[in-house]
Amino acid sequence: MFVCICKAVTEDEVHEHCADGADSADAIGERCGAGWGCGTCVDRLKEILERSAVSTAA
Q1: Architecture of the CATH domain 2-57
Q2: pTM of the model
Q3: Is residue 19 within 8 Å of residue 53, measured between CB atoms?
Q4: Could you list the pLDDT tens digit for every one of the 58 residues in the chain?
Q5: Which is nearest to 45 in space by CA: 5, 3, 16, 6?
Q6: What is the CA angle 1-49-15, rounded to 5?
Q7: Are residues 31 and 10 in contact, defined by beta-carbon separation less than 8 angstroms?
């Protein structure tokens, strides 16, 4: 599923960036451009980051 339509970034790609150390929406954007187009996906990026942080803390 696409998270960012503007840059064609999938949820799997975002999860990979989180696993590789991206810890903010800006950090993800620096890696793949997500969130740097229209900005509609920024909230979704933050949700994925929160879930990623919870799953790694468990």
Answers
A1: Orthogonal Bundle (1.10)
A2: 0.86
A3: no
A4: 999 999 999 999 999 999 999 999 999 999 999 999 999 999 999 999 999 887 766 5
A5: 3
A6: 45
A7: no
